[in-house]
Specification:
By secondary structure, this protein is α+β, with helices and mostly antiparallel strands. The chain has one domain (about 10-210). Helix content is about 35%, strand content about 10%. The strands form 2 sheets. Strands 1-4-5-6 form a 4-stranded antiparallel beta sheet, with helices on one face. The chain has a two-stranded antiparallel sheet with strand order 2-3. Strand 4 (about 135) and strand 5 (about 145-150) form a beta hairpin. The longest helix is centred in the N-terminal third of the chain and has 31 residues, at about 35-65.
Length: about 210
């Protein structure tokens, strides 16, 4: 009777399979790009927080006929129509943080326009401008409040550039009360303008309302 011997994989065949699996894994990781996905999530969170902040400021204005900065510093901001240059949302004048810092709530939280949980948001606790949100308003009577941030994902930057929605926060507002849009920013994880050093005001940012 003929004996049948089971044949297994050779070492070369196993090495080929392992190499193929490695190539497939590399392709999948490149397609998913976990860093880009994390940056997109951060951008979505900043956009949501910025929108909530703008809404809170508009509600505050409806109830007080003023903004927090006109209440806190009436000398420099005597009326709601006074221009408010872009400023880090951590600043007391914006109304999230109190005069003693961001451990306690400012005007917006005292007036119940924002919940105290906002004090723990990343943009409030950030120590750099690249993780912060900036608030500003033009000087015309019809000007609205804008809240802006530096998008971290390459896809968000490319979209902002393609749709002419990149704002230079250092250039202030136009006579019509709109922020100054710029074409001087390139996409990329470390492209000039998007990378902000320390507490500097960003020259490339995205804002709401769009």
């Amino acid at each position: 009777m003929k004996k049948v011997t089971a044949k297994g994989f050779t070492l070369v065949e196993l090495l080929i399979v392992i190499a193929l699996l490695g190539v497939i894994a590399t392709i999948v990781i490149a397609a998913i790009n976990p860093i880009e996905q994390a940056n997109r999530a951060t951008d979505s969170g900043n956009k949501a927080d910025a929108s909530n902040l703008v809404s809170a400021l508009q509600r505050y204005y409806t109830g007080h006929s003023n903004y927090p900065w006109t209440i806190t510093d009436p000398t420099n901001y005597p009326s709601a129509d006074t221009a408010f240059v872009f400023m880090n949302a951590q600043n007391t004048l914006v109304g999230i943080c109190s005069a003693t810092g961001c451990a306690t709530g400012g005007e917006l939280i005292v007036a119940n326009e924002l919940q105290s949980a906002f004090l723990s948001r990343k943009f409030v606790t950030s120590t750099t401008s690249s993780g912060s949100i900036f608030v500003g308003k033009g000087g015309s009577a019809s000007s609205t409040v804008f809240a802006c941030w530096v998008p971290k994902s390459n896809s968000a930057r490319q979209s902002a550039i393609a749709n002419d929605k990149v704002v230079d926060l250092t250039a202030g507002f136009t006579s019509g009360g709109l922020p100054t849009y710029t074409a001087g920013c390139d996409a990329g994880p470390s492209a000039a303008g998007w990378t902000v050093a320390g507490s500097a005001i960003p020259t490339c940012a995205e804002c709401v309302p769009e």
